[in-house]
Queue: 3 jobs
Job 1
Amino acid sequence: MWINGCVATNLTGAADAVSIEGVGCRVQVDGFTGTTGNTGVGIRISQARNSILTINDNNPAGVTVSGTLGDVAVSNGVVVTYADLLITNVIDVRGNEIRQGDNTSAGMKIVTLGIEIFNGSGGTLAVGDIVRPNGIGTQVTKAQGDSLANAAGPLLTMITSPVDGAIALATPIGQGALVNFDVAPAIGALTYLDEGMAGVATTTVPPAGGVGPNQKLRLGRTLIVSGTRARIVGSPENFPVDSNGIAP
């Protein structure tokens, strides 16, 4: 199905502008604007299974349709923003793929499986942030290499951007999603969990010492770089060790 040149307006109750339901659906959206004006979302795919929603930008109007609850609702209350989809594609736990079309400006479209977690960081998490379990259910918080406790895994990368307490999607490090860095990395660089900034990777070996003390945890090597984000490939180390400040 193709939706193009539409404007959502005057919807009542909790109605979404579009709800995709069924198995194996293929829906492309372009030039879809407006707002639900109620407690719905712009596009809902949470009732579908093994379906594909493609967001295109061939129409100059773009796709901005939204609601009070957000842009695109996927499985179990997770909401994905159109801004998130410019950074990474998403596959939810029901096998639905939400992606930018081939003609969009998103240069690094990576399909990656989402794991449902809750943001327990105390603030908003961004796509690409590196997180770890905080010991409370399925909550996560930003990881940091300044101590053993803050560097302990398993480490995940955020693929949606939840506010504190919200359900979201993340994926294990090394599975192809983009990771945020302290500064723009070089292609092929060996990466570490940063000790100076929470939630990001670095290509600089954490210095020895520190209060924690600082930990050395190698995450893999960069394959594709876009500004201060990069795709990390390889198997990350499972256990951090006290950093000696020496590469590798």
Job 2
Amino acid sequence: MIVDKEITKTFLFCLEDQVLDYKRNHPTRIDACLQILRSVFEESLTDNLNHGGVLCARSKELESVLQMRGGEKLLTLAGWRPVVVNFERSYERSPRSCNAKTLRELHRLVSKALDTVDGKKKSEETARQRKILMEQQRKERVLADFERDKSERRERM
């Protein structure tokens, strides 16, 4: 088995263009989506090695993936297909739908994207903390100026 380059290329394009779009998606939502994708891929890879049966996931479990623009396409590229089970939309994946090496490569891409999102979240948190600190310092300066002005007025009287 070899890695399907076309699936990998399309997956990467969809991941970068739609899911990792910070203008439309908040980093927390992106992180949740990628975490679930990674765990689903890991579970799928483990089950592929163990028994190779059909894997199912309920839409509720995949909710954060499906809410993202392009999330369903990522699942489809990884071999998951929508089905109805007990009047509920689910996704199933047959081991023959996407070979293990390709799925391993998609898992690597998702993990790499998660590292990028973690860095982005940390830098945003640092920027937010810096902004809070600057605002606090500004308030302290205004309060000190107010107190100084107040004491100068008392001295003049």
Job 3
Amino acid sequence: MSSSQVGDQASMVHMNTPEHSSIPKEVFHRARAKDARIQDVELKTLALIENTLEGNASSLEESIAQVKPTKKRELELMAQIIVSRALNEAHHCKACVSLACVLHAMLPSIPAARHMKAESFMHALLDVFQTEFEKLFGSPSTTQRNEKRIRAIVQFAGHLYCHRLLGNGVVSQIVQDLVDNGESAFANELLWFVGTATNSCNSDCGNLGTVLEDPNDSDGASSESVSQPVNSHHDGELSPNRKHFCTDE
């Protein structure tokens, strides 16, 4: 490479630095601040999960007060981290839902633009969960699906139902979607899960002392109107008229 070419490249690098860019400095500062904020929310959400797993109610309440999400994107990030942890490590599903229950009770909704509904943490979480559920059926072949992922989703849905964060209509829809896509065994597993009642699942979501994970708790919640066990199926795509997971009953 000639000396003139090296000089040209050095000049280009020099001109692409923030000091010599045509983009104003304040834009770079705002971008850095935004990245720092996102990283802060991510780290604090991970800390919330660890505090929940440890059963540390006092630290959990204090940590929630420090997060203070003020934007829809921050709520969505918190929801994504919690759902991802639950689905990637199914044995933490219960703790993640317990944490979600507390956040649902403690975090205020984020004001929305005109004519738009305010964004709540639970709305963000159920949006993320619905997206993950629908990804299961991207392949029509049952042999190409991740059974561990399906089971984690079933457990997560069961715990959400257990804490009254998922309604009968949505659970029925999940069951039907599983059946329609050749996953009757998992549909029955979800029905069994929500049908095994325990008093612990009826605890007050706002009480930090009762929603933290208890290894002695059994799973499940009573259900009188979800559905009956299924043993047949027909493969098919998800219906375009499906109920949104956030729909109130």
